[in-house]
# Entry
Amino acid sequence: MTLFGNLREALKKAASLRRMLERECAVRDGSEAFEPSGGHIEFVDVSFAYPEKVVLENCNLSFQSGKITAVVGPSGVGKSTILKLILRAYDPQIGLVKIDGQDIRIFRLQSLRSRMAVMEQEPRLFNRTILENVKYGRQGATDEEVREACKKANIHDCIMSREKGYHEVLSCAGSGWSGGERQRFGLARLFVQNPDIIIVDEGTSAIDTETETQVNMNLREWFQGKTTILIAHRLSSVMHAHNILFLSDNGQVCEEGTHQDLIARKGGYYSLFQHYHGNG
Ligand SMILES: Nc1ncnc2c1ncn2[C@@H]1O[C@H](COP(=O)(O)OP(=O)(O)OP(=O)(O)O)[C@@H](O)[C@H]1O
# Structure
């Protein structure tokens, strides 16, 4: 590309980012406290476009309360956009996102987001003690709650084997701890927060495949009874979901069911799975 071509592209991106930020400010705060009763999430006839691109058109989705739903589909189909709409980074131009039957726009943003968590597979760490890093999940959490969360996240013994235990100060990069261990700090933080709705976006994952598979295999156990959305950019893990939504262009659900259902159907999901794994 020529220098002018590059410049034009850069300016286009900057303009698009500015418009996006303007739109983000345009998300209006609601007035009601968010008190989910089950956390059943629905997209009702949702259409959504970024300034230069229509992503979802008349999209209808259902995420059952207390279950793991995986969202799968080709790259660029709108998987991450779906989670941005649930978190209200944006509002759809047409249609509704509902939780337990209520339009999520009525809720205070802070209240809504405090009951949801995006599981960060490479969590942000702070130059503070382990105790403080985990307490970041919920203001006011006690030391005992942190310890319980770390036990559940299977990192307690590892912390206790260190000289300063929970008082060891972490570096922002978490140096001296493995990717899997850092991921477990994030998990402990999430247990402390105890949200009703959990979003796992594999796109943010910088961990190795083995750790990732381990994480996804444990989702059922860790988040039993919580509405969990697994945005699956790769297919290594969706077998463990209670339901899989396989999306085609513009967010249409073209196949839905368990991994076994969709493999037996020998449709688009099956082909994608074959493509990644060589055999079904
Ligand atoms: N902020 C944005 N502004 C403009 N277009 C965007 C923006 N974010 C995403 N897009 C475009 O919208 C489409 C859907 O993006 P999204 O990230 O939701 O897809 P995805 O299914 O999660 O993709 P992948 O599996 O590759 O991560 C893509 O074509 C993407 O280029």
